[in-house]
Amino acid sequence: MRSAIGSDRTEKTRSMANPKTNQTKSSSKLDFATIAGLILAFGGIIAGLLMEGGKIQDVAQVTSALIVLGGTIGAVMITTPLPVCLGAAKKIAHIFFGKDESPGPVLEEIIGYATQARKDGIVSLESQVTAIADPFLNKALSLAVDGIESAAIRDIMDLEIQIMEENIDAEAKVFESAGGYAPTIGIIGAVLGLIQVMKNLANIDEVGRGIAVAFVATIYGVASANIIFLPAAGKLKARGREAVQLRELMLEGVLSIANGVNQKLIRLKLEAYVGTKPVVKLAKQKGKPSVETVSAEG
User: Fold this and answer.
1) How many CB atoms lie within 10 A of CB 3?
2) Confidence band of 211 (pLDDT split at 50, 70, 90)
3) Strand 276-285, strand 97-99: pairing
4) What are the sequence ranges of the domains in the chain?
5) All residues at 6 or more sequence positions from 107 whose CB lies less than 8 Å from its CB, including other chains
6) N or C: which end of the chain has fewer CB within 10 A?
7) How many whole angstroms separate alpha carbon 47 and alpha carbon 199?
C-alpha cells in the first residue's frame, strides 16, 4: 500500500516536471497597442488635414514615397552590415505580433524540476531535459545535470544572454538609423521638387501646385521617422527586454536547482520576475508560520 502511494506521488512529481504536460508553448498574438498607435497617429494627421480643408490626394504622392523609402533603405544598408539588415527585416513581424512568453508557466515548470531534483536527485532530470523545447533552458539544465559547477554554468549562460542583448540592440539600431535618415531624405525630396518648380516659374498655377507637392516628401520623411521607424526600434527593445528577463529567470532557477535550494525558496526568489512579492503572515498552522504571496499590484 505504501509503495503504491509512493509511486503515485513520484509519478505526480514527474508529471509536474514533464515539459510536455507543464510547459506552455509560446504563441504569437496580435499587438493591439501597435495597431491602435498607428491608427491614432495616422488618423489624427489625416483628420487634421481634412479639417483644414485639405484632401488625401494632396499628400498621396508616389514619387515622394519612393524617394524617402528608397533613399532611407539605401542609407541604412550602407551603414549596417547586410546580415544585421536581414535580421532586422525578419523582426518586422515582432512589431505587430508578440510571443506570449509569460514567466508564470516557466516558473512552475522550474519548480517542478526542483521538486523532482530535491526528491530523486538532479540526475533524475536527465530524461526530462531532452524534451525541453526552449533551447536556453535545455542547455542550462543539461549543464546542471552533467554536474558542471554553478559558476561555470553562470558564465556560459550569461555569455549567451549578453550576445542575445547585443543582437537585439544591433537590430533595433537599424530602425533607429532609418529614423535618423528619413527626415533628411525627405528634405532632399523637397529640394528635388522645388527644382522642378523653378522650371515653371512662368506658370503661377503650376508653381503653387509644385511647391505643395514638393513639401510632401518632407512630410513623408518626418512622419515615417517618428511614427514608424523610431517607435519600431523601441518596440523591439521592449520585446528584447522581456526575452532577456525570461532567460534570467531560467538561469536563476537552474542555478538554484544545481545548488540544492529548497523549491519553496526558489519560488520566493523567482516570483520577483513574475511580478509578485512575498508577504510573510504569521498565521498558525500546526504551530508553524505560513508564507503567502500576493501580486505586486496588491
Assistant:
1) 7
2) confident
3) unpaired
4) 2-30+61-295
5) 249, 253, 267, 270, 271, 273, 274
6) N
7) 33
